UniProtKB/TrEMBL annotation:
<dbReference type="GO" id="GO:0030488">
    <property type="term" value="P:tRNA methylation"/>
</dbReference>
<dbReference type="GO" id="GO:0019843">
    <property type="term" value="F:rRNA binding"/>
</dbReference>
<dbReference type="InterPro" id="IPR004383">
    <property type="entry name" value="rRNA_lsu_MTrfase_RlmN/Cfr"/>
</dbReference>
<keyword id="KW-0004">4Fe-4S</keyword>
<keyword id="KW-0698">rRNA processing</keyword>
<keyword id="KW-0808">Transferase</keyword>
<keyword id="KW-0479">Metal-binding</keyword>
<dbReference type="InterPro" id="IPR048641">
    <property type="entry name" value="RlmN_N"/>
</dbReference>
<feature type="binding site">
    <location>
        <position position="113"/>
    </location>
    <ligand>
        <name>[4Fe-4S] cluster</name>
    </ligand>
</feature>
<feature type="binding site">
    <location>
        <position position="117"/>
    </location>
    <ligand>
        <name>[4Fe-4S] cluster</name>
    </ligand>
</feature>
<dbReference type="GO" id="GO:0070040">
    <property type="term" value="F:rRNA (adenine(2503)-C2-)-methyltransferase activity"/>
</dbReference>
<dbReference type="InterPro" id="IPR013785">
    <property type="entry name" value="Aldolase_TIM"/>
</dbReference>
<dbReference type="InterPro" id="IPR006638">
    <property type="entry name" value="Elp3/MiaA/NifB-like_rSAM"/>
</dbReference>
<keyword id="KW-0411">Iron-sulfur</keyword>
<dbReference type="InterPro" id="IPR027492">
    <property type="entry name" value="RNA_MTrfase_RlmN"/>
</dbReference>
<dbReference type="GO" id="GO:0000049">
    <property type="term" value="F:tRNA binding"/>
</dbReference>
<feature type="active site" description="Proton acceptor">
    <location>
        <position position="93"/>
    </location>
</feature>
Length: 346
């Protein structure tokens, strides 16, 4: 039996060449991509302005989706976790987070993660493989279809799920380009965020791409000894190198970097940490998101008290840093920050 290729894994240039080889008119590319990215169709049969014979060709060459939803859980706060199966039987998770006038999807970029952050369940499970651009886009498209069926609209996309996006650079950037393209999903660049642990060469490369995205850095410590303990990647790229990469990043006017900071009981929230953080990012336009640690079975760390997090926030604000506390969403369904995990299909 012929193996069908996921059509969204093809770059625009590849799809254009495939169409040209079959003698299709030049306008067919825009028609096809319109159906792939702007209409919520479930089958090639639904692409009604394409010739029936051409739809049959598509059916014989490609599969429309590279993922299948196999489970869904909803928390009391409305957060929904989607479990998807890939064509090769891996399982990945994406999380839909409602918040007043926003509806944000947290997308995964890898099955597992190579970074090994000790406070993150995904990292403790190890790495299986990179996701393709089509698998990232299909998380967005499948969830968007469900959202629209409920009369709502997906407003924001964050690459903060399973995996390190810049460790899967080519595929992540290809998916991001489709997300913000007028010929793709058409998201505003202001509504798309990429989060990284700070892979310095890739951050510098991203700075040259010309993508006006929101960049978030997973910081989590203010000195190299502590950050190396929490995040092995810091042994390769020190805090000084990571912050230097941010200083060389062309930040558009009115935009700020987001610093994500998981607060761990007794580890990284002292007054000295507050002062070191202020010195570290002096002169940079940043906002700090404090994320109280979300415990999981076998975790080495504990969640700080609410009072401790509020005190740390107050210390940072006194030092002039715009600081917010990010409320954990979907904890009871393991959908909160650091709790996503890959599972092999049966």
């Amino acid at each position: 039996m012929k193996t069908l290729r996921p059509i969204k894994d093809l770059y625009r240039e590849e799809l254009a060449q495939w169409l040209q080889e079959r003698g299709e008119p030049s306008y067919r590319l825009d028609q096809l991509e319109g159906w792939l990215y702007r209409h919520d169709v479930a089958s090639f049969h639904d692409m009604t302005n394409l010739p029936k014979t051409f739809r049959e060709v598509l059916l014989g060459e490609f599969c429309l989706f590279s993922l299948e939803e196999v489970a869904r859980e909803e928390a009391l706060d409305g957060t929904t976790k989607f479990l998807f199966s890939t064509l090769d039987g891996e399982r990945v998770e994406a999380v839909l987070i409602p918040d007043r006038d926003r509806l944000t999807l947290c997308v995964s970029t890898q099955v597992g993660c190579r970074m090994g952050c000790r406070f993150c369940l995904t990292g403790r499970q190890g790495f299986r493989r990179n996701l393709t651009r089509g698998e990232m886009l299909d998380q967005v498209l499948l969830v968007r279809r469900e959202v629209r069926n409920q009369g709502r609209e997906l407003t924001n996309v964050v690459f903060m799920g399973m995996g390190e996006p810049l460790d899967n650079y080519e595929e992540s950037l290809a998916a991001l380009r489709v997300l913000i393209s007028d010929k793709g999903l058409g998201f505003s660049h202001r509504k798309v965020t990429l989060s990284t642990v700070g892979l310095v060469p890739q951050v510098r490369r991203l700075a040259r791409e010309g993508l006006d995205l929101t960049l978030a850095l997973s910081l989590n410590a203010t000195d190299d000894e502590t950050r190396s303990l929490l995040m092995p990647i810091n042994r390769r790229y020190s805090l000084e190198e990571v912050v230097a990469a941010l200083r060389g990043y062309p930040l558009p006017p009115r935009k700020r970097f987001t610093l994500e900071y998981v607060v761990l009981e007794g580890v990284n929230h002292s007054p000295q940490d507050a002062r070191r953080l202020a010195r570290l990012v002096e002169g940079l336009r940043v906002k700090v998101n404090l994320i109280p640690f979300n415990p999981f079975p076998g975790a080495e760390f504990e969640r700080p008290s609410e009072r401790e997090v509020l005190e740390f926030q107050a210390q940072l604000r006194q030092l002039g840093l715009s600081t917010f506390i990010r409320q954990s969403r979907g904890q009871e369904i393991s959908a909160a920050c650091g709790l996503l995990r890959w599972r092999r299909g049966a």
